[in-house]
């Protein structure tokens, strides 16, 4: 077995494990990714990981999926990027297509196992905040940046608010640290040529501009689906929860999907592992069965592929410059702050409504941090405990 094939197989297996166990939404996913890729496998260090997270916060689309795509690209080239996406996304796609077929009008919002999944996300995100805070906000100025960013993110929770806070932290980092010695950072190992990157960005721009024209010239449900989901995947900032109102406006008024079916899909998407953007798979299946699911899924995630392949090679060079490194010292601290704010809202506020829920979150955190159990085992523990505690009225 040659080295490249072994690398690709490893990427697929690791991302598939994450796709089967990463519950709790995009912020929790970043915690799972850090545990697997940074701490366990050491494919990159905390600093490079935070740089990727910061970059993906600026790009439209699903940030956690884009971080996974980026790590796959670094590890195994363009095909490695695809395998990373495939492994992480397909479990969710399959489950949501099954939901569309079998449980379109089912209500899973208050199931005990779902409550357990929401609660374990609190522990996963808290672990990520603690670990990243130690390495990315080690001094008082950067702790202040993290705290101020967290406060700002809570008061201005929009995607544009987050981008503004990250930009302000970059300015602070540049002004405060530009005269200090900054450690040399290893390059992000990107095998994609800059010509290929530029071509990827050109394809992205061309599709965004001309898909509406093609939809008009070649009317049909699949072209319409591709146009809608590509456009939404191209322009939405702020992650999965922000995409919901945009998708609702695109699929409910035309009569493709009813309000009830849309809300059922949202509940299902919350209940499965992987990216919330796979709601597109459910909606595509409701509209036009399995072919519709495949078209909607491909269109929703294609912008992320094109943007990551187009931007990352340039970012790999830019991030090594002294001034950029100083700015990134502020940006990385702000990423800790954004994660800290998300730990409270929506992760904590949507999961902890009782003393029992808080006790289960504390237990899960202790198992992760002090007993060093793998995340999948803690997820399973929380599912079982949620299923037991919810009927007893403890959650």
From TrEMBL:
<feature type="transmembrane region" description="Helical">
    <location>
        <begin position="327"/>
        <end position="344"/>
    </location>
</feature>
<dbReference type="InterPro" id="IPR003370">
    <property type="entry name" value="Chromate_transpt"/>
</dbReference>
<feature type="transmembrane region" description="Helical">
    <location>
        <begin position="376"/>
        <end position="394"/>
    </location>
</feature>
<feature type="transmembrane region" description="Helical">
    <location>
        <begin position="144"/>
        <end position="177"/>
    </location>
</feature>
<feature type="transmembrane region" description="Helical">
    <location>
        <begin position="350"/>
        <end position="369"/>
    </location>
</feature>
<keyword id="KW-0472">Membrane</keyword>
<feature type="transmembrane region" description="Helical">
    <location>
        <begin position="197"/>
        <end position="216"/>
    </location>
</feature>
<feature type="transmembrane region" description="Helical">
    <location>
        <begin position="12"/>
        <end position="33"/>
    </location>
</feature>
<feature type="transmembrane region" description="Helical">
    <location>
        <begin position="111"/>
        <end position="132"/>
    </location>
</feature>
<keyword id="KW-1133">Transmembrane helix</keyword>
<comment type="similarity">
    <text>Belongs to the chromate ion transporter (CHR) (TC 2.A.51) family.</text>
</comment>
<keyword id="KW-0812">Transmembrane</keyword>
<dbReference type="Pfam" id="PF02417">
    <property type="entry name" value="Chromate_transp"/>
</dbReference>
<dbReference type="GO" id="GO:0015109">
    <property type="term" value="F:chromate transmembrane transporter activity"/>
</dbReference>
<keyword id="KW-1003">Cell membrane</keyword>
<feature type="transmembrane region" description="Helical">
    <location>
        <begin position="228"/>
        <end position="247"/>
    </location>
</feature>
<dbReference type="GO" id="GO:0005886">
    <property type="term" value="C:plasma membrane"/>
</dbReference>
<feature type="transmembrane region" description="Helical">
    <location>
        <begin position="82"/>
        <end position="105"/>
    </location>
</feature>
<feature type="transmembrane region" description="Helical">
    <location>
        <begin position="282"/>
        <end position="315"/>
    </location>
</feature>
<protein>
    <submittedName>
        <fullName>Chromate efflux transporter</fullName>
    </submittedName>
</protein>
<dbReference type="InterPro" id="IPR014047">
    <property type="entry name" value="Chr_Tranpt_l_chain"/>
</dbReference>
């Amino acid at each position: 077995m040659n080295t490249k094939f072994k690398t690709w197989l490893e990427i697929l297996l690791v991302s598939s494990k994450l796709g089967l166990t990463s519950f709790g939404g995009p912020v929790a996913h970043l915690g799972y990714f850090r545990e697997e890729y940074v701490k366990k496998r050491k494919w990159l260090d905390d600093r490079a990981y935070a740089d990727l997270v910061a970059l993906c916060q600026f790009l439209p689309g699903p940030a956690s999926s884009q971080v996974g795509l980026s790590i796959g690209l670094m590890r195994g080239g363009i095909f490695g990027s695809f395998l990373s996406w495939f492994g992480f996304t397909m479990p969710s796609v399959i489950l949501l297509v099954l939901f569309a077929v079998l449980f379109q009008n089912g209500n899973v919002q208050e199931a005990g196992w779902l409550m357990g999944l929401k609660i374990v996300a609190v522990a996963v995100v808290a672990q990520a905040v603690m670990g990243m805070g130690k390495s990315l906000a080690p001094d008082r100025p950067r702790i202040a940046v993290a705290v101020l960013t967290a406060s700002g993110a809570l008061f201005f929770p929009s995607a544009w608010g987050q981008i503004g806070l990250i930009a302000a932290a970059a300015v602070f980092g540049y002004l405060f640290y530009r005269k200090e010695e900054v450690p040399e950072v290893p390059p992000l190992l990107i095998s994609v040529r800059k010509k290929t990157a530029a071509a990827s960005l050109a394809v992205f721009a061309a599709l965004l501009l001309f898909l509406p024209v093609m939809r008009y010239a070649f009317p049909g449900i699949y072209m319409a689906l591709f146009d809608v989901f590509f456009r939404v995947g191209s322009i939405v900032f702020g992650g999965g929860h922000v995409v919901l109102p945009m998708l609702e406006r695109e699929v409910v008024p035309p009569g493709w999907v009813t309000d009830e079916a849309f809300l059922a899909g949202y509940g299902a998407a919350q209940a499965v592992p992987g990216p919330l953007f796979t709601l597109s798979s459910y909606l595509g299946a409701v509209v036009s069965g399995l072919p519709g699911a495949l078209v909607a899924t491909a269109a929703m995630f294609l912008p992320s592929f094109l943007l990551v392949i187009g931007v990352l090679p340039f970012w790999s060079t830019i991030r090594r410059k002294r001034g950029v490194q100083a700015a990134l010292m502020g940006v990385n601290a702000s990423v800790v702050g954004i994660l800290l704010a998300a730990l409270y809202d929506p992760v904590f506020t949507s999961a902890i409504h009782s003393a029992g829920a808080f006790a289960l979150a504390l237990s899960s955190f202790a198992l992760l941090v002090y007993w060093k159990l793998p995340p999948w085992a803690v997820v399973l523990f929380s599912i079982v405990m949620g299923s037991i505690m919810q009927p007893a009225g403890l959650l």
